[in-house]
Every structure is written in C-alpha cells, then in structure tokens.
Amino acid sequence: MIKNRGRIKNFISFFKSIKVKLICYFILMTTLPILIVSSTAYNSGKKALNERVIEKLTSIADLKKTQISNWLQERFVDIGVLSANKSLEVSFSNLLYLRKAFRTIGTMKDSEIGKVYYKRLSEYLGQIKEKFIYCDEISILDVEDGEIIISTTESNIGLVDWDYKYYLTVLENRGTPFKDIHYSGYTKQIGMTFFGAMKRTDPITLEETEVVNGIVLIRVNTNNVIESLIQEWPGRGETGESVLVRRDEERLVFLSNTRRLDNEALKMSIPVKTLVPEAFMLDAKEEGIIEGIDYRGLVVLSAFRYIPQLKWGLIVKQDTSEAFKPIIELKNQVITLAVVSVLIIVIIIFVLAHGITQPILQLVQGANAIGKGDLGHRISISSRDEVGILASEFNRMAEKLEESYAGLEQKIRMRTAQLRESEEKYRESVNLANDAIFTLDAGSAQIVDSNKKAEELTGCSKYELSKKKIWEIVPEYDREKTKQLWITINAVGSGMLDNIDCQHVDRRLTPTSISASVIEYGNKRTIQWICRDITERKRMELQLIQTERLAAVGELAAGVAHEINNPLGGLQNFVKMMKKEPGNVSQNQEFLDLMTEGLKRIEVIVKQLMAFSRPYSIHMSNHKLNEIVENSLRFVDHRIKEQGICLETNLFPDLPEVYGDAGNISQVIINIIVNALDSMPNGGNLMIKTGYCDHQPSSIHIMIADTGLGIQEEILNKIFNPFFTTKEMGSGLGLAISKRIIDDHDGNIMVKSKLGEGTAFYVCLPAG
Fold first, then answer.
1. What's this model's pTM, rounded to 2 decimal places?
2. Domain end marker among 188, 221, 254
3. N or C end of the chain: smaller count of CB under 10 Å?
4. CA Rg, the chain, in Å?
5. Are residues 729 and 587 in the same domain?
6. Which CATH number does the domain housing residue 444 bear?
7. With 80 as the cut, is the pLDDT of residue 614 above it?
C-alpha cells in the first residue's frame, strides 16, 4: 500500500514538470489534428494526380499508335499509286528497252535518244519526290538483275539492290510491300523501303500487260519522319519520350533513336522484362501501363502498345520522378502547411508559457557562462521544481570543476610537451633514415612530405617534391608500373615493386626497390612510400652473373679439350708406332687410315663448335608447322624403315602459321628424331604430334615421343649443355644447337623422360 502511494505521488509530481506540460500541450494542440488533416488531403490528392498521369500517358500511347498506323497506311497508298502511274510505267518501259540495247547505263545516257528519255524520266521522278516530302529517294530497278535504272539520287544509278529478290517474293505472295526498318547503304541512313511492281506498258496504246519489268522503291529516313512523329507530344517534360521497338527473343531492339542518345537505332537493346511484361508483342492484347527500368537504369512509367501490322512495339514513357512530380509537390505543400501550422502554434505556446520558461532561460544563461570557462559563476534560482534542482546541481558541478581545472591544466601541458617531443623524435628518425621516404596523398598520389634521403635521391627540395606526383620522379618507361602499384596499394592496403629506376634532376638513374602501405590516422588517409637504393645489390648480381659466365666458359673449354684430346692421343700413338716400324707398309697404311678418321673427327667437332658459337643467319617468314614436320620426316624416313620403327603422326589441322626459319626449325626436329631413333636400336614406337601448347599461351607445339631407353633423372637437366652426351660417338652439340635455335625463335623446348619407358620432347613456338 505504501509502495502504491509512493508511485502515485511520483506520477503526480512528474506531471508538475514544465517540460511535460509543454510537450502535452504541443501534442494535443498541433500534432494529432495536423496529421489527420494532412494525411487525408495528401491521400486524396495523390490518388487523383496518379490517375491523371496514367490517363495522360495512355492517351498519348493510343494517339501515337493511331498516327503511326495512319502514316503507314498513307505510305502504302502512295506506293500503290506510284506503281500504277501510267506515265511512269511507259517512261520506264522505254528507258529499260534502251538499257538492254546498250552495254552500260553510262553509254545509254551518253546516246542521243537515251539522254532524252533519261532526262525526261529523271525530271518526272524529281517532281514526284517534291510531292512526297517524307521520302529520301525514289528508284526503279530492273526486275531481272536488281540494277537501279533510274533514281532521284544519281550516285545510286547503276548500282545493284540485292534485295530485289525479296521484293519480288513479297509482291508475288501479295504481302505487305515494305522492308522493315534497316540501315540502307543507298541513303546512308536508317529507314524503311516501300516498293511496288512496274508493269510493261505499251507507249502508244497505254495498255498495261501482266509482265513485271521493274520495281519502284520509295526509301524513307525514319529518323526524320517517324521519330519526329512519335517524339512530339504535349506535356512530355524533360524526360518524356516515345520509342519504337522490335522483339528479338527476350530482348527489345530499339528501332528509333532515344531522346538522349543519337545513332542508337538498331544498335541498342534491353531485356524485355525490365521495361514491359514478358508477354509484350507475343500477345496482341498485351497493352497497358507499368513501372519498369529503362536503358538508363532509371525507374520510368511506361505505356506500351502493339502494332501487329508491322510487328512493332510502341513505348511511351516518362521518369517516375517527373511523372509523379505533382504528387511530390503536393506532399511538400502538405508538409509545409503542417510545419507552418505547428510553428504558429508553438509561437502561441511560447507567448503563453513565457512566465513559466523565464527561470529556464536564467538556467541556460548560467550554463553558458560556466561552459565558457567562468567557473566562478553561480545560478541564483530558488524554486523547488526541476529548474531549481538543476540550478543547485550546476552550482555544485561548477565548484568541482573549479577545483579540478588547475590540476587538469597542468597535466595537459605535460602531455602536450611529451607529444611534441615524441613527434620531433619520429621526424628526426625519418629524416635520418637510410631509405628515401615519401608521404603521399592516397587520392591523388601527390607527394605531401619527404625526408632528406628523398631529396638526395631526386635532387629536388622538399618544396619541389610537394609539386610532383610520385610517378614523376621515375623515367617514362617505369611510370606505368608505378601507377599500377599506387592503384594496388589503394585497393589492398600495401604492395612492393622491385627494380624501379629513380631519376635525379641531373638525369642520373638510381635503381630502387619500393615498399609502400596505407596509413590512416583520424579521418586522413595517406600512403607511406619507401624507396631503397639497391645499387650495391645490382652490382653483386652482375658479379654473380659474370662468375656464372666464366664458369660456363670453363666448362665449355673443358668439353672441347676432352673431345679433341681423345683423337689427338690416338694420332700420337699411331705416329710413334710408325716411327718404330717405318718399313711395315701394310701396318702404316692401316694407321694412316685411322689417323685420317681421327682428323675428320676433330674437324667435325671444330665445325660443330663453330656452328654453335658463331652467329648464324635467320630468314624469318610465315610457315605452316605441319609442312615443316612432313619435310623433316623425309630426311629420316629410310632410318625409320631400316630399324622397323612404328611411326604414328597426329598433325592438328588448321593450325596458325609460325614466324621463323623453316630450315632451322627442321634441323631441330631432325636432331630430336635422330636421338629418338638412336635410343631404339631394337625397334619401337615413334609418335609425332602437333597442336596448341599447354605451357605457353598463344603458342603451338611439336611433341616427339619415343619408347626407347629413356634418360636418367639425374642427367636430365644437363642434356642441353654443350659437349654433354651419352653416346659413344656423339659430340654433345646437337641438343645445345637445337635449344639455341628455339630460343632465337622466342620459343621453348622441354623434355620429359623416365628410364626404360621412353622420352618426350615438346617444342613450343609462338604463332605468327
């Protein structure tokens, strides 16, 4: 019971609060009535305006559909009248008769009688064209070959209209005499072509026969005629437009230009379901109005109609933002009215409650004084309501703030000094760093700060660097890579780049390695860009490469010495033995033969070494790889048959050509095939295959595989070294020369082998 009484007492004291009273008065006097009236007025107005917008677009769509249908019907009447024109039929029959008598139209026009007939008919067509103000050209074709005999566009005379068979087919089947909207190579415009049959007519009796000897064409530029017909309508505003479409499966192809995009007719298309229902143009009854997404990706209100005569779709649309603009304006008016009403009532309440709120104003003034630092200020309000309680709490807070302010100010001074010292240490460490450090604006790559090493590396002062972007301190050939690194860092937060030259103002270049990352503090985002001088590292790399080259030269020299010393040793032994027995003629003759073979062996080694070491001429041109393979096989065909080798070839058809020296490529193929035959002394299988390379994009390859002895895994990486061989009589230069040839063709040669299971060589060459 006591608790309930306490709750009731608290509830009653709550409603004694000035704040609660003002809020209650405001809600009762403004919010509820205004919301009810505003909502009712807005909903009624919105419904009426929405119906008016839909009715307007629907009426425009019906009007444009009728206008298009009427315009087309007029054109069909025009082409019918033109094709039945007796004077035109007689003149054309005479001109066509003359055309058959001459080899070309030019010679016919140059003849005396031809000039008369041509001029008469040309002037007559010109008069007709002036009456048909909508057309671009009137032409008459020879029905036999489609040649344009006469035309209002003189440059088209003598050309062949290859659609003449289509015209004849439509006329014979009594179809609609027109060709749908298309790009015409004769008018160089997008348009339509209406056509009719010209029958042979007797020039004297004017009797018309049933023989069709020509086709009369009217070419119309739809951009000038139909677009102006459908685009102009009252109240279309800034976004209203009409478009003709043709359905192509699930897409709508635009037959006319849009209001904002020129030259898009027959080029632009959008999915059907984004703008109109999926059944549009499939069901003749599918017409109406709907909200959809147009080619700009904006929400529009579209009224759509179907023109079955031509299988066209007509769409009249307007952005919903503009179509429903009156509704938005109504909404703004209602809101404005409500706000103004509330403000007026608030002013009234403020006047009435001025006496009540005066103590609150005194409290606010005191709070402002304390907030500005006048901690000695005290608020003198003696009331016992919320304002009086708040005033006493403010006075107590001011006393505590005044006591703690002195100590807090001292702590702030100490902390500020520590931060300044820390910042100076950081800046000094950056300035003394051995790497060039740049601070970049993340959005523009502008250099906003740099250290002393950066100034030494570029030769620019800090002020000069602040005027540059980061890629302006590198040469032209490295700028694109630097820009890409900046883009990567913005995307992923960090990145590295090696071997980038930094350019000094005196044009000196310093190789550097770049490491950069994004740094964020507060709302600011920068990039720390560190350039390390790698001149010493590059020098060590060059020394290492030089050492490797010297080692390779030593290995080559050892191989040459080994290959030549063996035959030389044999020659020395034979000379000693011949000196001991100079009279032994048969023995000396045998030794001389062996010495000749040894000298030939040395000669072969020296020639192969010269071929390997000297530059050789390359005659580059396009060749078919399959033909090179087939020509190479002819050189080893006898060995394949003698050894009983089973040859399998699989040459991929229609491979692109390779750009290279056919003779050198053939030498590589022969070298590999000979090695394969040597590894199969007792017969086996040899497979040669061509195709696209799996290891190198846009390359083709030759695969040569055998079922021979195979190569040991430990020596597989040495087979391309000069003078390395596993054959007793081999020189070890065949594969080395082959690799050099393929390298010179920007190709690659690879080998896979397993001891006892055979070997496969892959020669990849770039396609020409």
1. 0.42
2. 221
3. N
4. 48
5. no
6. 3.30.450.20
7. no
